Amino acid sequence: MRGTATMTAPLFTASDLAVNVLSAQSLLAAFGVLGVGVVMFAETGLLIGFFLPGDSLLFTAGLLCTGSGQNGVKLSLPPLLIAAAVGALAGAQTGYLIGRKAGGALLARSSSPRLRSGAHRAEELLERYGHAKAIVLARFVPVVRTVLNPMAGALGVPARTFTVWQVAGGLVWSLGLTLAGYALGSSIPNVDRYLLPIVAVIVLVSLAPLAAELYRSRRRGATSEEEVRG
Protein backbone atom coordinates (compact mmCIF):
# COMPACT_ATOMS: atom_id res chain seq x y z
CA MET A 1 0.00 0.00 0.00
CA ARG A 2 1.43 3.40 -1.01
CA GLY A 3 2.04 6.12 1.60
CA THR A 4 -0.16 8.65 -0.15
CA ALA A 5 -3.81 8.38 0.84
CA THR A 6 -6.61 9.01 -1.61
CA MET A 7 -8.98 11.76 -0.51
CA THR A 8 -12.67 10.84 -0.65
CA ALA A 9 -15.00 13.52 -1.98
CA PRO A 10 -17.69 14.55 0.50
CA LEU A 11 -21.22 13.37 -0.19
CA PHE A 12 -22.62 16.86 0.37
CA THR A 13 -21.09 20.28 0.03
CA ALA A 14 -21.90 23.21 2.30
CA SER A 15 -23.97 24.80 -0.45
CA ASP A 16 -26.04 21.61 -0.80
CA LEU A 17 -26.89 21.62 2.91
CA ALA A 18 -27.61 25.33 3.24
CA VAL A 19 -31.34 26.12 3.22
CA ASN A 20 -32.77 29.62 3.36
CA VAL A 21 -35.93 29.23 5.45
CA LEU A 22 -37.15 32.63 4.27
CA SER A 23 -37.06 31.57 0.61
CA ALA A 24 -39.92 29.48 -0.76
CA GLN A 25 -37.77 28.21 -3.64
CA SER A 26 -34.95 27.15 -1.29
CA LEU A 27 -37.35 25.27 1.00
CA LEU A 28 -39.05 23.49 -1.89
CA ALA A 29 -35.76 22.54 -3.54
CA ALA A 30 -34.52 21.05 -0.25
CA PHE A 31 -37.64 19.36 1.14
CA GLY A 32 -40.27 19.21 -1.59
CA VAL A 33 -43.87 18.37 -0.66
CA LEU A 34 -42.92 17.28 2.85
CA GLY A 35 -41.45 20.72 3.50
CA VAL A 36 -44.76 22.35 2.56
CA GLY A 37 -46.64 20.34 5.17
CA VAL A 38 -44.05 21.05 7.86
CA VAL A 39 -43.93 24.79 7.13
CA MET A 40 -47.74 25.05 7.09
CA PHE A 41 -47.87 23.32 10.46
CA ALA A 42 -45.13 25.48 11.98
CA GLU A 43 -46.47 28.78 10.63
CA THR A 44 -50.04 28.20 11.79
CA GLY A 45 -49.42 26.18 14.95
CA LEU A 46 -46.14 27.24 16.54
CA LEU A 47 -45.29 30.82 17.50
CA ILE A 48 -41.70 30.30 16.35
CA GLY A 49 -42.99 29.86 12.79
CA PHE A 50 -44.41 33.38 12.40
CA PHE A 51 -41.58 34.42 10.03
CA LEU A 52 -42.03 31.55 7.55
CA PRO A 53 -43.16 32.37 3.96
CA GLY A 54 -46.58 30.72 3.94
CA ASP A 55 -48.28 32.58 1.08
CA SER A 56 -45.30 32.54 -1.27
CA LEU A 57 -44.52 28.90 -0.42
CA LEU A 58 -48.01 27.69 -1.36
CA PHE A 59 -48.08 29.69 -4.59
CA THR A 60 -44.56 28.69 -5.63
CA ALA A 61 -45.24 25.03 -4.83
CA GLY A 62 -48.30 25.08 -7.07
CA LEU A 63 -46.22 26.69 -9.81
CA LEU A 64 -43.56 23.98 -9.54
CA CYS A 65 -46.18 21.30 -10.18
CA THR A 66 -46.26 22.49 -13.79
CA GLY A 67 -42.50 22.11 -14.31
CA SER A 68 -42.11 25.88 -14.70
CA GLY A 69 -39.61 26.29 -11.89
CA GLN A 70 -35.85 26.63 -12.03
CA ASN A 71 -33.25 24.00 -11.00
CA GLY A 72 -35.41 21.17 -12.34
CA VAL A 73 -37.67 21.07 -9.26
CA LYS A 74 -41.06 19.55 -10.09
CA LEU A 75 -43.72 18.59 -7.57
CA SER A 76 -46.84 16.45 -7.88
CA LEU A 77 -50.11 18.32 -7.36
CA PRO A 78 -52.28 15.75 -5.48
CA PRO A 79 -49.71 15.04 -2.70
CA LEU A 80 -48.97 18.77 -2.50
CA LEU A 81 -52.63 19.66 -1.93
CA ILE A 82 -52.90 17.02 0.79
CA ALA A 83 -49.71 18.15 2.53
CA ALA A 84 -50.72 21.83 2.39
CA ALA A 85 -54.21 21.21 3.76
CA VAL A 86 -53.16 18.76 6.48
CA GLY A 87 -50.31 20.99 7.64
CA ALA A 88 -52.49 24.13 7.73
CA LEU A 89 -55.41 22.46 9.54
CA ALA A 90 -53.35 20.44 12.01
CA GLY A 91 -51.18 23.46 12.77
CA ALA A 92 -54.11 25.75 13.55
CA GLN A 93 -55.73 23.15 15.80
CA THR A 94 -52.44 22.62 17.63
CA GLY A 95 -52.02 26.37 18.13
CA TYR A 96 -55.53 26.57 19.58
CA LEU A 97 -54.82 23.73 22.03
CA ILE A 98 -51.55 25.36 23.09
CA GLY A 99 -53.38 28.61 23.77
CA ARG A 100 -56.07 26.82 25.72
CA LYS A 101 -53.50 25.10 27.94
CA ALA A 102 -50.99 27.91 28.35
CA GLY A 103 -53.37 30.87 28.16
CA GLY A 104 -51.70 34.10 27.05
CA ALA A 105 -48.48 33.32 28.91
CA LEU A 106 -46.49 32.42 25.79
CA LEU A 107 -47.41 35.61 23.97
CA ALA A 108 -46.87 37.71 27.10
CA ARG A 109 -43.30 36.42 27.43
CA SER A 110 -42.44 36.99 23.76
CA SER A 111 -39.77 39.63 23.10
CA SER A 112 -40.61 39.97 19.39
CA PRO A 113 -42.30 43.32 18.55
CA ARG A 114 -43.68 41.76 15.36
CA LEU A 115 -45.25 38.89 17.30
CA ARG A 116 -46.73 41.24 19.89
CA SER A 117 -48.17 43.43 17.14
CA GLY A 118 -49.68 40.35 15.48
CA ALA A 119 -51.24 39.27 18.79
CA HIS A 120 -52.81 42.71 19.24
CA ARG A 121 -54.26 42.61 15.71
CA ALA A 122 -55.55 39.07 16.27
CA GLU A 123 -57.34 40.11 19.45
CA GLU A 124 -58.85 43.10 17.64
CA LEU A 125 -60.13 40.84 14.86
CA LEU A 126 -61.80 38.51 17.36
CA GLU A 127 -63.45 41.37 19.22
CA ARG A 128 -64.55 43.35 16.17
CA TYR A 129 -65.75 40.69 13.75
CA GLY A 130 -66.73 37.80 15.97
CA HIS A 131 -65.18 34.37 16.10
CA ALA A 132 -66.18 32.91 12.72
CA LYS A 133 -65.25 35.85 10.50
CA ALA A 134 -62.03 36.61 12.40
CA ILE A 135 -60.78 33.02 12.19
CA VAL A 136 -61.32 32.93 8.41
CA LEU A 137 -59.89 36.41 7.75
CA ALA A 138 -56.79 35.75 9.85
CA ARG A 139 -55.69 33.00 7.45
CA PHE A 140 -54.86 35.65 4.88
CA VAL A 141 -52.77 37.91 7.12
CA PRO A 142 -49.10 36.98 7.79
CA VAL A 143 -48.17 36.73 11.49
CA VAL A 144 -51.84 37.16 12.50
CA ARG A 145 -52.60 33.66 11.20
CA THR A 146 -49.86 32.40 13.52
CA VAL A 147 -50.97 34.11 16.71
CA LEU A 148 -54.75 34.11 16.32
CA ASN A 149 -54.99 30.37 16.92
CA PRO A 150 -53.41 30.38 20.41
CA MET A 151 -55.23 33.66 21.12
CA ALA A 152 -58.54 31.96 20.30
CA GLY A 153 -57.71 29.18 22.74
CA ALA A 154 -56.60 31.59 25.45
CA LEU A 155 -59.73 33.75 25.05
CA GLY A 156 -62.04 30.75 25.36
CA VAL A 157 -63.42 30.54 21.81
CA PRO A 158 -65.58 27.36 21.79
CA ALA A 159 -63.66 24.40 20.35
CA ARG A 160 -66.43 23.47 17.91
CA THR A 161 -66.71 27.03 16.56
CA PHE A 162 -62.95 27.33 16.16
CA THR A 163 -62.60 23.94 14.44
CA VAL A 164 -65.39 24.52 11.92
CA TRP A 165 -64.14 27.93 10.83
CA GLN A 166 -60.43 27.21 10.91
CA VAL A 167 -61.08 24.23 8.62
CA ALA A 168 -63.13 26.40 6.25
CA GLY A 169 -60.58 29.21 6.19
CA GLY A 170 -57.62 26.84 6.11
CA LEU A 171 -58.88 24.96 3.05
CA VAL A 172 -59.69 28.14 1.13
CA TRP A 173 -56.27 29.61 1.94
CA SER A 174 -54.02 26.59 1.45
CA LEU A 175 -55.74 25.02 -1.55
CA GLY A 176 -56.65 28.35 -3.14
CA LEU A 177 -53.10 29.72 -3.24
CA THR A 178 -51.65 26.38 -4.36
CA LEU A 179 -54.15 26.02 -7.20
CA ALA A 180 -53.61 29.67 -8.19
CA GLY A 181 -49.91 28.95 -8.65
CA TYR A 182 -50.67 25.79 -10.60
CA ALA A 183 -53.17 27.56 -12.87
CA LEU A 184 -50.77 30.40 -13.64
CA GLY A 185 -47.86 28.05 -14.29
CA SER A 186 -50.03 25.97 -16.64
CA SER A 187 -51.18 28.94 -18.69
CA ILE A 188 -48.06 31.14 -18.97
CA PRO A 189 -44.74 29.73 -20.26
CA ASN A 190 -41.60 30.58 -18.25
CA VAL A 191 -43.72 32.33 -15.63
CA ASP A 192 -41.03 31.65 -12.98
CA ARG A 193 -39.03 34.56 -14.43
CA TYR A 194 -41.62 36.89 -12.92
CA LEU A 195 -42.05 34.98 -9.66
CA LEU A 196 -41.13 37.76 -7.23
CA PRO A 197 -43.58 40.38 -8.54
CA ILE A 198 -46.27 37.70 -8.88
CA VAL A 199 -45.80 36.62 -5.26
CA ALA A 200 -46.04 40.26 -4.16
CA VAL A 201 -49.36 40.57 -6.00
CA ILE A 202 -50.60 37.33 -4.46
CA VAL A 203 -49.82 38.60 -0.96
CA LEU A 204 -51.67 41.84 -1.67
CA VAL A 205 -54.66 39.96 -3.07
CA SER A 206 -54.70 37.68 -0.01
CA LEU A 207 -55.06 40.80 2.16
CA ALA A 208 -58.05 42.03 0.11
CA PRO A 209 -60.74 40.25 2.20
CA LEU A 210 -59.45 41.85 5.38
CA ALA A 211 -59.13 45.29 3.77
CA ALA A 212 -62.67 45.04 2.37
CA GLU A 213 -64.05 44.01 5.74
CA LEU A 214 -62.26 46.88 7.50
CA TYR A 215 -63.67 49.32 4.94
CA ARG A 216 -67.22 48.01 5.37
CA SER A 217 -66.86 48.11 9.15
CA ARG A 218 -65.72 51.74 9.11
CA ARG A 219 -68.57 52.71 6.79
CA ARG A 220 -71.09 51.04 9.09
CA GLY A 221 -69.53 52.86 12.04
CA ALA A 222 -69.70 56.21 10.25
CA THR A 223 -73.33 55.61 9.25
CA SER A 224 -74.26 54.73 12.83
CA GLU A 225 -72.63 57.92 14.13
CA GLU A 226 -74.54 60.03 11.60
CA GLU A 227 -77.81 58.37 12.59
CA VAL A 228 -77.14 59.07 16.27
CA ARG A 229 -76.34 62.72 15.53
CA GLY A 230 -79.42 63.04 13.33
Automatic annotation (TrEMBL):
Membrane topology: Multi-pass membrane protein
Residues of the VTT domain: 52-182
Pfam families: VTT_dom
Domain of life: Bacteria
Record's keyword terms, sorted: Cell membrane, Membrane, Transmembrane, Transmembrane helix
Transmembrane intervals: 27-52, 80-99, 162-182, 194-215
Protein name, UniProt field: DedA family protein
Organism of origin: Streptomyces triticiradicis
